[in-house]
Amino acid sequence: MTTRVEEIDGKLVATLIGELDTAAAAETEKAMLPLMDCKGKDIVIDCTGLEYIASSGLRLLLSVLKNAQSQGSHVVLKNVNDVVKDVLDLTGFVSLFEIE
Amino acid sequence: MITLHFDMKKVDSNWITRVGIVVFAAILVEVISVVQDQRLRGMMVEEMNLHSKAVLVSKAHEIEHMLELTEATLAENRWVIEQQLSQPDSLFWVLERVIDDNPHVVGGCLAFVPYYYPSKGRLFEPYAYKLADGSIVAEQLGGLEHDYTRNPEFTWSLDHLAPSWTDPYLYGPDSLSYATYNEPIYDSKGRLAAFCGLDIDLSWLGDTLNAHQPFPSSYGLLLTTEGDLVAGPSEERISREEVLRAVDIVNGKLSEADFPGIAIRKTRLEKEPYWQLVQVYKKDEVLAPMHKMRRQQWLFMLLGVAILAFMINRYARNENKLRVASAEQARIGGELAVARDIQQQMLPKVFPSYVYGTLEPALEVGGDLYDFYIRDGKLFFCIGDVSGKGVPSAMLMSMIHSLFRVVSRKEESPSQILGALNNQLCAGDDSNMFVTCFVGCLDLYTGKLNYANAGHDKPFLLTSSAALLPVKANLPLGVFPGTEFELQSMVFSPGTALFLYTDGLTEAKNKQRQALGRERVQQMLDSCLAKGTDAPEQLVNALSAEAHSFAGEGAQSDDLTLLCIRFQPGDILSRNITLGNNKDEVAQLSTFVKDFLGHIEMERRVAAGLRLALEEIVVNVMNYAYPAGEHGEVTVYADSNYKEVRFTVVDTGFPFDPTAVLSVDTTLDAQNRPIGGLGIHLTRKMVDSISYSRKHGFNVLTLTKSIS
Q1: Which of the residues B582, B586, B624 would you substitute to probe the A interface, choosing the one with the greatest number of A C-beta atoms within 10 Å?
Q2: Residues A20-75: pLDDT tens digits?
Q3: What's the distance, Cα to Cα, between the start and end of chain B in Å?
Q4: A53 or B288, which is more confident
Q5: What is the number of other CB atoms lying within 10 angstroms of the CB of residue B298?
Q6: Do A23 and B586 touch (CB under 8 A)?
Q7: Mutation test of the interface with chain B: which of A58, A60, A90, A93, choosing the one with the most B Cβ atoms within 10 A?
């Protein structure tokens, strides 16, 4: 699991590559810490390389979302594959996030 | 130590109770016997009184009768004497005749007033008496040497001119006892002529009084009015001294109270001369029967108390034994329940679709065993029956079970496995118990079955019908070290199954003590095969039900163990993995599940969903099943027949049923979303069915998903 966070065109872009299972959650959480300091900047989470997500990963996304909303930021999930999309559908997360 | 201490106290208080009961019983008996004694004593004294009264009255009557007879004799003969007064010498003859006619009169005299017959001088006293030989002698007694006028009786009679009895007196060469009745005789002119005296012999009185005495030392006495002794027992019977003492008591010279051993009863004649009749008893003798009874009573009481003590002791000991035994039984019962749990835990809990088994112990713990597991695509299995039932055989069974697991990890040949088991068993077993055992190894891909038997019942081979598998019997395990168990093999065609059992099935007994029998088992299997209800679980359940219905309500007589294995080539995939409760090990789970699912053709999304479903359950166990910081394990069994995937998650943590967790509300907005609960929600959504059970301390959760 690889996680990269960078600022592109005033947006915080997090790129997740690999499988975000329970074992990877802690490490990913650490890597995504810069997103917690978004200060109104929108956040894009690039899921092109995200092959799998478990509930621990969802929890991570939820905490990013809650934090961003309190700071007036939007969170966009980009390029979600069908596997991850199923999970988002089943948990109602599709209605929480903006999905591109 | 504490238990022991309490036991000692219990025993002590028991002893006190027991001794108390015996002492109480003894006191009760003694009190009863004392009261009875008093009554008895009263009764015996009363009897003595009655007896003495009867004796005294009858003797008194006898004497009175004698006296009256004498008085009557004189009255009858008075006229003859009066008539013959004129011829003094004929009076001798008259007296002789009176004596002769009246046997009770032993002598008679006529004491004439002085000078009545001037010719006879001053004193004249004709006298006739009976000699010892019965002849009668008459003589004249009056004279210088015998001046009867000086006799007190004579002077008394002269003064009173009335009939009178003398007090008894001793007279004659034999010192016999006599009494004389005197009456005045008047002549035709009305002048006092003489006093006529008739003597009677009283010496018989002593004998009469003392004949038929009720006790050896009781005796009768005759005393004069003044209390002089007239007649009594012979000196051989009662000493003179004793008799005189009694006389003194009667006369008031000695106090009766000073002689508590003596009881005296007396009466007087109801007429002149009012002599006294006395009965003397010794109290000891009167009460002797009572004393004898008392001694017997004591003996009986002692005997009774001893018997009572013995019975109480026995009863108490039995009760103690019973209490100890029932406590022991309760303890053993508890331990048996634990043993049963342990034993049950060793049995397989998760069955792939092609294997099913059951073990029902007859007693709390059983001597049967069966086991199976898959290693390297091969199914290792065994079924066995330890001789006997109960704890010892269960312990041996547990040992075999563990040994099977250990040995078969490294050894593939059933023959070698049995050989190793046998040697271990022979080495350590002095109890002469043996074990029948069948071990097999089925290659799940090729269908080759290797097997070896150690004296166990031949399994059934199920194809289109049921038949016995060709099996060499061989010796059971634990008989001889070094026994060889011939390796046999056979290649199963797809669908072939093996049905193994212990004799609890074929030997199941009905009320008539008939056994179910192998033929009946074979018929049942055939009918199941014909009906198509031939999945291993169906077969095992059908035969188990048959055994139970055959046996009826009676207790199951032997352990019942059934195991059925079906060869389903290529369409069975089984894997398992055991992880610690550490979330880092989820990575291993991921690898395991991806690898397992990789063998099965399915959509990527389905595979990801299955992986997610399993991961959420396992992570949940890792997080919450065990106390924080404590090591625990979770095992995942993954099976598939390529149409369906089944995951079974087993842990020994706190009982927890994830299926009972409420669904999360997926319509809430982000701020109101709870962090937890998503995992189980996802699992539910990803599989077709989810079921939970708690078995023998294990949480067993099964997920199934159809992939066709």
Answers
A1: B586
A2: 999 899 999 999 999 998 888 999 999 999 999 999 999 999 999 999 999 999 99
A3: 68
A4: A53
A5: 13
A6: yes
A7: A90
Q: Determine whether the interchain pair B678/A21 forms a contact, defined as Cβ–Cβ distance below 8 Å.
A: no
Span B582-634, pLDDT tens digits: 988 999 999 999 999 988 888 889 999 999 999 999 999 998 889 988 999 99
Amino acid letter at B519? E
Q: How many residues does chain B have?
A: 708
C-beta separation of B67 from B271 below 8 A: yes
Nearest to A23 among B587, B608, B679 (CB): B587
Pick from B639, B608, B635: which is nearest to B356 by CA? B639
R_g over Cα of chain B: 62
Report yes or no: A96 at the B interface, CB cutoff 8 Å.
Answer: yes
User: Which among B604, B594, B616, B589 has a CA at the least distance from the CA of B685?
Assistant: B616
B563: alpha, beta or left? (left if phi > 0; alpha if psi -120 to 50): beta
Chain A positions touching B611 (Cβ under 8 A) are: 52
Query: Which residue, B355, B457, B338, is CA-closest to B398?
Result: B338
What's the angle, vertex CA B181, arms to CA B221 and CA B130, rounded to 5?
Answer: 85
For the segment B265-271, the average pLDDT, to the nearest whole number, is 83
H/E stretch holding B351: none
Which string of DSSP letters, residue by residue, matches A40-65?
A: T--EEEEEEEEEEE-HHHHHHHHHHH
How close are the terminal C-alpha atoms of chain A, in Å?
22
- Chain B residues inside the 8 Å CB shell of A87: 612, 682
- Residues 6 or more apart whose CB falls under 8 angstroms from that of B651 comprise B621, B625, B632, B633, B634, B635, B698, B699
Question: Quick check: bond before B173 cis, omega within 30?
Answer: no
Mutate to test the interface with A, among B579, B581, B594, B605 (most CBs of A within 10 A): B605
* CB-based contacts of A18, cutoff 8 Å, min separation 6: A1, A2, A24, A49, A50, A51
Yes or no, beta carbons of B673 and A96 under 8 Å apart: yes
CA angle (B458 as vertex; B457, B462 as ends), nearest 5: 135
* Cβ pairs bridging A and B (under 8 Å): 74
pLDDT, tens digit (0-9, with 9 covering 90-100), for B487-508:
999 999 888 999 999 988 988 8
Set of chain A residues whose Cβ sits within 8 Å of the Cβ of B615: 21-22, 54
Give A79 to chain B, closest Cα distance, Å.
Answer: 16
**pTM for this prediction:** 0.42
Query: What is the least distance, in Å, from the CA of B703 to any CA of chain A?
Result: 17
Q: Which chain B residues have a beta carbon less than 8 Å from that of A56?
A: 619, 679
Q: Give me the residues paired with residue B701 across strands.
A: B649, B692
Rounded (to 5) percent helix, strand, coil in chain A? 45, 35, 20
- Among B589, B594, B602, B615, pick the best mutation site for testing chain A contact (most A Cβ within 10 A): B615
* Nearest-Cα residue of chain A relative to residue B589: A23
Angle at the Cα of B275 (from B269 to B277), degrees rounded to 5?
75
Residues 6+ apart with CB under 8 A from B616: A54, A55, B679, B680, B682, B683
Tracing tokens 């934090």 back to the chain, one arrives at A67
C-alpha B435/C-alpha B453 separation (Å) is 11
**Chain A contact set for B685 (CB, 8 A):** 90
Measured at the alpha carbon of residue B6, what is the angle toward residues B4 and B12, in degrees to the nearest 5? Answer: 105
- List of chain B residues whose C-beta atoms are within 8 Å of the C-beta of residue A76: none
Question: CB distance A87–B615 less than 8 Å?
Answer: no
Sign of CA dihedral B611, B614, B617, B622: negative
Place of tokens 């009594």: B232
